[in-house]
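Page 42, continued from yesterday. The earlier attempt failed because a stray header line got pasted into the input along with the sequence. Redoing it now with the clean sequence only.
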Amino acid sequence: MKKALVILHGIMVALAAFFTVSLIYTLVISIFVLITGIEQVPTQVDYCLMVLAVMLAIIPIYLWYRRYIVSGEVEQAKASDVFTIRNIGVFLMIGLGCQYFFVGILSVLRPLLETLFSYYDETMDSLFATDPIIVAVYVVVLTPIIEELMLRGIVFSRLRKGLGFPLANVIQATIFAIYHWDVIQGAYAFALGLVLAYVYEKTRTLLAPILLHFIINASGFLLAVYKGPDIPIWLAIIVGGALLVGGVYLFDKSINEKNRK
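This time it went through. C-alpha cells are written below.
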C-alpha cells in the first residue's frame, strides 16, 4: 500500500510539473494574442513563443526541484566535478552510442511499423519546422534542462524516497516516454530515461544527466540537420552498442574510483 501511494504521488507530481509548463505556454500565447490581436499564430512565431515559455518555466520548476534536496543528499558535486574532460569524453561515448544504436534499431523496425513511423516523422518535421538556431536552442539547450528538472529532479527524486532504484527508474522512464506522446519517440525516450536516471543515481547531481542529455540531443540535432554519412544499419547498431556499453562501463569505473577515494 505504501509503495502504491508513493507511485501515485510520483504520477501526480509529474502531472503537476507538466501542467505548470503547459500553463505558462498558454499564458504566453494568450498575452501575445491580446497584445497583437493575431488569433491565428504563425507556426514559426508559435515555436518562438514555446521556446520563451520553456525558458520561463525553468524558473518555477527549478525552485520546486530545490524543495526535494534534503540536507545535501542531492547536488553534492560541484560543476567543476562534473564538467571534466574525462566525464565529457565518457558522456560523448554514451550519447553517440545511444544515437547510433537506437537509430539503427529503429531503422530495422521502420518497415514493420509504417503507420507508427509516419506519426513519428510528422513529429520530427514539426520539431525542426523553424530556423535551425531556434531549434538548437530549444532541442539542445532548453529541453535537457527542463526535462531533467521535471523527470529526474522532481519525479525520480520523489519516487526514490519510497521505492528502490529499479522500480523508481522504470516508473520515471515510463512517465518520460508517455510525456513524448508518440510511440516511437516514447520507446526511445524510455530507454534514454533509464540511462539518465542511472547517471543521476550514481552522481547525485542533476548536472550530470543534464550534460549527458545535452550531448544526446546535440548529436541527434547535428545528424538530423546536417545529415551525417550514411552507414550500414548493422554497423550503426554494432558501433553504437559498443560505444554505449563502453561508455557505461567507463562511467561506472570512474564512479567506483571516486567512491574508493
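Notes: The two ends are 40 Å apart (CA to CA).
Reminder to self: strip header lines before submitting.
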